[in-house]
Design brief:
The complex is a heterodimer of chains A (about 325) and B (about 260). Chain A is an all-alpha fold and about 325 residues long. Chain A contains 15 helices and four strands. In chain A, strands 1-4 form a two-stranded antiparallel sheet. A two-stranded antiparallel ribbon of chain A has the order 2-3. Chain B is α/β, with parallel strands linked by helices. Chain B folds into two domains: about 160 residues, P-loop containing nucleotide triphosphate hydrolases (Rossmann fold, 3-Layer(aba) Sandwich); about 80 residues, no CATH class. In chain B, about 40% of the residues lie in helices and about 25% in strands. In chain B, the strands form two sheets. A six-stranded mixed β-sheet of chain B has the order 6-7-8-3-9-10, with helices on both faces. The chains are: A mainly alpha (about 325), B alpha/beta (about 260).
Chain lengths: ~325, ~260
């Protein structure tokens, strides 16, 4: 019998295309490390979004639910971090921890009633949560300083050590993103993850096998809120600044794009999508006037030729071969 | 001894009485079949038993416990597991994973064990071993790593049964397990159901395929317009005048 780690490795060997994609990504990241410059910032951004989208994928891809409001949890955690460090002089780590805890508490309060809703209703309820938190960050000027935003937020760090150089911040974020993806992979191949994917497949059949659907949806919601909150706090410490627009509706649109381009429901897809969608505008920047057009065209082409997302391309291949073998 | 007792179970939808004061005892071993013309209320009765619908009146007793109105997951925890008339597989999981989900109730582990693989590797190995044994029983081991959605229809039915068995039921409810199967597949299903019954699991099935019912059922109950009109061995039921009339009527009206 294989442990799940061994099975991930076995899968990588069976899917050389996916392995090649990861090696390509690793080589690129190494290249940026050496050369530095503007791309470092782009990759930092990609790593933070990789965490956010990997979490969203657990709720939307694994459990098959919809949320337009996970930016709310990033905002709550990010602003808590920012206010506690910049205004009250807290250290980064405890401030981040309080941020995560408050986002989770909010997710619990919000998730318990809303997860009884299905489909469109759930989508509308989560959208409302995102908008409400956005309005609070704009209007509660005495704490958040409204549109002005909060600056002077200290960098990531533990105790006396802090991460200041761009390269070190990037290294930190990539390690955290890798851990986030590994955890998501572990969840997917566990009893918990299978129950979530089962709920996405058929709620009736899941219930008939004794799975408490409402409870598992809430667990998925909380896990993805945790990821969102982590991404939200990392952002403010990596950039040193926060304003309401950081967690606005744009964040939701971008996360959805990454999720669908990368491959919703696949383990690797979320991180892959974050990387590709973050880099896409940079690669077509030379087209100047036409870059928005090219960006849109590239996304449409990906979704036409890889409707399951980039990560599903090798899987589609191997499942076709698998069918021939069977 | 009876594993399941229905006491005057009724279910109304507005003015329509889909199930009308049905009282039925299902013995703790062997195969019991519920037959009846289309629209007789068989599936509604199944939904009431398994907790997907609450009865408008009456009681459902399972293993001596009143389970009337309990939600399906609680009913399943007690050992009553069902399949669906239109196969409900987890199409986005592999064949093997589908059976692993079936073991949900008999395994432990949440988020922590998902993240700490060293501790859970051992139980995961047990889950895999048990799942493979069940796939072996229904002949689906070669397809273990395929997504369940790509299986041909007959094999989907078998996988759904294997998945239900993984939940270690005391009573297995099968909603038209032979629907859409060809003759060979139906024969295979018949021997599989006998084998299941011989392991001591009580089987209650709804079926249209009369030859299957006559071959494998130990007892038959007949529903017509929501009412129980006959109960007995397959042979007794076959010769029951009311049953013959009910079936002839539907044949006549479907020809009209």
């Amino acid at each position: 019998m294989m442990s799940s780690r061994a099975s991930i490795w076995a899968k990588a060997r069976r899917q050389p295309a996916l392995l090649a994609l990861w090696i390509l990504a690793a080589v690129f990241i190494a290249y940026v490390f050496v050369t530095g410059g503007y791309l470092t910032t782009v990759l930092q951004f990609a790593a933070i979004y990789a965490i956010f989208v990997t979490g969203l994928n657990i709720f939307m891809g694994y459990a098959g639910q919809v949320s337009f409001g996970h930016n709310a949890f990033a905002a709550i955690s990010g602003y808590t971090s920012a206010v506690l460090t910049a205004n009250y002089g807290w250290a980064t780590l405890p401030a981040g921890a309080v941020g995560l805890a408050s986002a989770l508490a909010c997710a619990l309060v919000v998730g318990y009633p809303t997860l009884r809703l299905r489909g469109h209703y759930l989508a509308m309820a989560t959208l409302a949560i995102g908008l409400i938190v956005y309005e609070v960050t704009v209007q509660w000027g005495s704490v958040t300083q409204g549109y002005m935003g909060i600056s002077g937020i200290p960098p990531l760090g533990v105790g006396r050590w802090s991460v200041t150089s761009d390269r070190a911040v990037l290294a930190c974020l990539i390690v955290l993103a890798a851990l986030a993806v590994l955890a998501a992979a572990g969840i997917r191949h566990s009893r918990l993850g299978r129950a979530l994917v089962a709920i996405a497949g058929s709620e009736e059949a899941a219930r008939a096998l004794g799975i408490e659907v409402a409870r598992y949806k809430l667990i998925a919601f909380l896990i993805s809120a945790f990821y969102a909150a982590l991404a939200g706090s990392l952002f403010v410490h990596a950039v040193g600044f926060v304003s309401p627009e950081v967690y606005g509706l744009h964040m939701v649109v971008l996360a959805f794009t990454m999720l669908y381009v990368g491959g919703i429901g696949t383990v690797a897809g979320a991180a892959l999508g974050a990387l590709v969608v973050a880099l896409l505008p940079e690669t077509i920047r030379t087209l100047s006037d036409y870059q928005d057009l090219a960006y849109g065209a590239a996304l449409i082409l990906i979704l036409i030729y890889a409707p399951g997302g980039l990560a599903s391309v090798p899987r589609f291949w191997s499942s076709r071969h698998g069918q021939e073998r069977a | 001894m009876n594993i399941l007792q229905l006491e005057n179970v009724s279910r109304r939808f507005g003015g329509l009485v889909a199930v009308d004061a049905v009282s039925l005892d299902v013995p703790a071993n062997g195969i019991t079949a519920i037959i009846g013309p289309n629209g007789a209320g068989k599936t509604t009765l199944f939904n009431v038993i398994s907790g997907f619908l609450t009865p408008s009146a009456g009681r459902v007793i399972f293993c001596g416990r009143d389970i009337t109105g309990l939600p399906p997951e609680t009913v399943a925890q007690g050992g009553l597991v069902r399949t669906f008339q239109l196969v409900h597989l987890f199409e986005n999981l592999t064949v093997l994973e589908n059976v692993k989900v079936g073991q949900h109730l008999h395994t432990q582990g949440g988020l922590l064990s998902a993240l700490m693989r060293f501790r859970s590797a051992h139980t995961e190995a047990d889950v895999e071993k048990a799942s493979l044994a069940l796939l072996e029983q229904v002949g689906l081991v070669p397809q273990r790593d395929l997504p369940a959605g790509v299986l041909p229809y007959g094999r989907k039915r078998l996988l759904e049964i294997a998945r239900a068995l993984a939940a270690e039921p005391k009573l297995l409810l099968l909603d038209e397990p032979a629907a859409g199967l060809n003759r060979n597949e139906t024969a295979y299903l018949a021997s599989l159901l006998r084998a299941i019954a011989e392991t001591g699991i009580a089987v209650l099935l709804i079926e249209h395929d009369m030859s299957l019912v006559m071959n494998i059922a130990d007892g038959v109950a007949v529903l017509d317009f929501g009412k129980l009109i006959a109960r007995g061995t397959p042979r007794e039921v076959q010769q029951n005048a009311q049953v013959i009339a009910a079936y002839l009527e539907t044949t006549a009206s479907s020809h009209a």
